[in-house]
Every structure is written in C-alpha cells, then in structure tokens.
Design goal:
- Among the domains are: 160 residues, Glycosidases (TIM Barrel); 205 residues, 3-Layer(aba) Sandwich (Rossmann fold); 56 residues, Immunoglobulin-like.
- It is 30% helix and 19% strand.
- Helix 10 links the parallel strand 7 and strand 8.
- The strands form 5 sheets. Strands 12-11-13-14-21-20-19-16-17-22 form a 10-stranded mixed β-sheet, with helices on both faces.
- It has 682 residues and is an alpha/beta fold.
- The structure holds beta-D-galactopyranose.
- Beta-D-galactopyranose (GAL) binds next to loops.
Amino acid sequence: MSASWIRWPWPEQLLEGRPPLAYGGDYNPEQWPREVWAQDAALMQEAGVNLVTLGVFSWARLQPAPDAWDFAWLDEVMDLMAASRIAVDLATATASPPPWLTSAHPEVLPVDRSGHVLHQGARQAYAPSSPLFRELALELVERMAQRYGGHEALALWHVSNEMGCHNAPDYSEAAEIAFRRWLAERYGDVEALNTAWGTDFWSQRYGSFEQVQPPRLAPTFPNPTQVLDFARFTSWQLQDQLRAEAAVLRRVAPDVPVTTNFMVMGHTQHLDYTAWAADVDLVANDHYVMAADPDGQHELAFSADHTRGLAGGRPWVLMESSTSAVNWQPVNPPKAPGQLRRNSLVQVARGADAVCFFQWRASRAGAEKYHSGLVPHAGADSRLFRDAVALGADLAALREVVGSTITNDVALVFDYEAWWVLDQPAHPSAQLHYREVAEAWHRSLWESRVGVDVVGPDADLSGYRVVLVPLLHLVREETAARIASAAEAGASVVVTYFSGVVDEHDHVRLGGHPGAFRDLLGVRVEELGPLLPGTTVHVHGPSVGTATAGTWVEPVDVVDPGATEVVARYLDGPHAGGPAITRARRGSGWAWYVSTELQDAGRRRLVGRVLADAGVAPAVAASEGVEVSVRRRGEAQWVFAVNHGQHAGEVGGGGLDLLTGTEHAGPVPVPAGGVVVLRRPA
Ligand code: GAL
C-alpha cells in the first residue's frame, strides 16, 4: 500500500497490517439538527461506514460574515466522527462562496460565453481566475488546515469539490486578464501567438496581447486554436487553484494526503485530468450512471478503466456515486434491485479501493432533495438502508483486495486535447463524438472480457501487446513516436480514421492524412470522407467477414504494398473496391489502419482478430451477460464476475467466493443480477 493512500487514523483499522476498503460518502450535518448527528454516527457504524467527506458546502456556516468565523459545530462533528472511529475526508470548503462574498463583490462571479453573469443562488458561483476569490479561499483553507490538520479523525484532504463542474469555462474579465498572462508566458511575444493561431486567416492578427480575448460568442466560427488554447487555459486555471489549496494543506499538515474529486464520466471534458493527476496524492473520481443510457453499465466500466489509467494503475477512490436515483437527469428512476451492489463492485473490480456516495442522508430541502442517499427520506427502516448495510458487509469481506493492482495487455489512448479539438465546429462532420468512439472500441474488448487500461497520450506504452488509438485527431509528434515505437517493439497498434491529422496548434499536417501516422501505417489519404447521416457502407475481408460501417469512409492508398496488407476492402459506397482496413508489419509488431467507423459486430470481429494475432485471450470464460474482471492481483488473484442479465450464468474455474465464503471447485454459478468475487492463486 502506497504511503499516499488514505491515512487511516486508528491502529485497529489496520487489521493484519491491511487497511479496509473505504466506505461512506458526503456527510452534510449542517443540514440537520444536532440530535440527528448522534443517530447518524450510530447508523454509519451499523452500515460499516468508515469514511465521510465533511465540509464540502460549509463555507457560509464556517465564515458567516467577512470577519466572523464559526468552527464550533465542525469541531463537534469531527470529534463525533473520531469517537465513532469514522475517518474524515475533510473538504477545504471552498467549493461554493457564501452570499456575503458574491453580493459585496459581484466581480468574482463567473460569466458565460454570451457575457451573461452566472449569479449567486446555486453553487460554484465564482470565476476561477478571480484574485479576490483566490485570496479569500486560501484564507479559509489556511484556517481549515491549522484547525484540523492534526485532528485525530482526519484521513484525507478534499480540495474544493468537482472543480469546474459549473464554472468552467469562464469568460469573465478576470479570466480575460489571466488568459492574456497565460498566453504571454506560453508564447513570449504576440507574433508567436499569431503564427500558432493562424491569425492571417479572417484578418485576426493581434498587435499585442492586450487585444486578445477569450473566445466569446462571435458572429461565426471562432478561431480554433484560440478555442483550444482557451480550453487549455481553463483546465490550467482550475488546476492552479488545486495546486494553491494543496500547497497550503501540505505546508501545514504534510502527512495528510490530498485529493480532489475528478469527474471522469459521460461527457465531462473541461479538465485535462491526465495533467491534474500529478497534483493529487491519490486519484478520486465521481461517477453517476445515466439512467436512460442502454450502455450505462459499459460506460461505468470505461470510466473506471480511465480513472485507473489516471491513477497510473494504482488503487483509487470512488468518491461519489448514487445509491439509487439522482435528481439531475431528465427522468430519475431509482436503481433496480441489486444495481447498487453491482455498480459498486464493478468499480472495485476495476481498481477502486473506496466506494463512497453522494450523500449520507438524503436532504429535505434544496435542489437535491430528490437525490438518493444511504439513508433515504423513509429512514433507516428501508430497502435502501438495508442495501447500504449489506454493501458495507460485502466491502468488509473484500478487504484482502486492498492495495492490489491491475495490469492489462491492452491500452486505449485517450487524450483530452484531442477531444477539445474534435468537438469544435467547422469540421468535415459534426457526427464524430470522441468519447463515444473511444467507448465503442473499449466496449468490443469489454464484450470479449479482455481488460483495457485507458491511458493518456504521455503514458508508457511499452509492455502492452495491443494499443488502440481511436480518433486521435490532434496528436503531438512525441505521442505519435511513442505509438510507433510500441509497434516496433511488438505491439499491435490500431489507429482509426481522422487520427494524426493536426498538430498541437490544430494545424493540418501537409502531404496527406493521417499525417503523423502516415509512415507508421504505410497509407496515404488525400481526401477526408464524412458520410451523410443514415448512410452506411459495407466492408469485406477474409478475417473480418462482411461488416457494416458508417459516419466516415476514406480513399486509402497503400504506400508500400510490400509491407502493408489490405485486410478488408469497401464493397460499396464512394470508395468501393478500395482498401478499408490495412495492416503493416513494423518491427515485431503490427500497425493497423481502420479508415471507417465499423458498427459493433464488425468492430468486435476485428478486435477479435487483432487480439488473436497479438496472443491476447480472455483469462476466464463466462456466460453471456456476465462481466468478468480478472486482473486484480496481489498475493492472490481476484476474479470479479458480475451478472447484469436476467438469467443465471456462470464463470469458469473455481475459487473461494469471498462474498459467501463458499469454496467452488468447478465453474461457479453467478445468479441473475448477482456478483461473485473469487480468490485464486496469483
Ligand atoms: C456531484 C456533486 C455533489 C452532488 C452530486 C449529485 O456533481 O459533487 O455535490 O451534487 O453530484 O449527483
């Protein structure tokens, strides 16, 4: 267990030298009368809760006026947690400025792209670039650190909360000033900016940094590199807040690890967590399943694999999820029976050593009063609380997996900058959605029960046998070189259409597509090929059969027919007869190019072929509908089998089911909707 893991405060928690899985959630006692607090502590103990996040939205209580401070109530709660042996993930409380601040200083408020001020009355109403906000926030952090840095219950610091969830990007005056400063540091002189932004297009040349603004709503398409740099700046600015708060915490309480909760889920894209991960002592993530998403279960697996990638393969914290319904989707049904358990244990299967929720007790008032908690409005005599107690028992039974890590043979390269660029307008097609395409490739592996690490563009790829590079439109030379070296060293690299086309300034690489990957792939594409919505084509090749594809087709020229083989050709469409999928020998590996968006069946067959070539096979057989993760390893190996289906299934091999204590010799039954976790020799 790394020293940077949650600092468990009490020796009895370190049974057999091993910390427990963390279990708990956001606790907002300030929303409840004092007499509820003692009940809370007792119920937490009943459920096996051992970690709560306190203080996230407490600024207005802690500092009720500019020169008034009130920590007495929090002292009491911290002491109650200590007495109950419940560790605290203490927030810096800077997530939401109090009304006295925003009403006296409206200049701290964030502004949207159209110039509308986002007013107080909700949360996160601050401009991340505001110097006044920073000053007041750091004063609060200093006081929190001084007061609680040595508190017995303190296990972890929680900087702000879901930074940038509502106030990024911000187009305020403060952002404008900070953006100019950031640009001046990045480019040195304005001519370098003019070159990088291609400002000779549409008469956009700047005479000085003072003329530059954030990309506010403009008559038509904004400058794409300006938008890209503003996205970089937005991520950097909030990261700077994280660093500033963390610096105070580390100065005052150097032994207490620092985290902040990332939002790796769905389409949350404003922050480049690949860069942020270095600033936290352990990676924490919030994840909510979209109830209407038929692929929600898979999206959860993708997000968990991405979070683990950000954590460099080390264990991470699931800081928030929901026990049942949320309040912010268009329709918010409760979770189905067993779903809380399945969702939670899939996160553990994919590397989480903590399962926490928003929130402990469902609120009575406020915008989230219809959001579930561990204790629902119905009280502790409820299905939900009983499920929470049962989950606590499951997590206690899984203690031995804590600290074990996961290594996979397959990596999928995922880059926020590529996402920011691809989502811009004025592209060949508005139908390309980066995360959806990345998820689709991941899903083919998930269906094949082969583990994938979702890694950033700077990740070390040596050691992977398969490297997937879907839709990596923007790529830096270094990343392209690393991907090429992986092939040389023996990996099967799969690059898809519209990748490698632009450099880090979003300038097109000349000489043909896919730019940075042309030599690696041995192909050249002269014209990009979006398809109109609803149009499909077919491709055919001996090893992938006939597959349907859509969204995009390219006219591919094979540059070096000696080394590059055509794996499948277009059967119809604008490039009928031409290469659709190719494969080039590179060193001891392969470089595959897929010039179209294969639909699920074809993609799955292609992935099967790539895996077979690379010698990667699922480690365990299981019946349809049973999700299996087999790669958590330490002194043993743990197989997590989660049955998402309506029918009983099974998972191959045997082992000791940690959840029931039953030893199985042969294939292990996995009941409909159920979970088994098997210990096997490493
Ligand atoms: C998160 C947030 C929590 C709560 C939760 C509701 O975005 O951090 O404070 O709002 O969502 O699902």
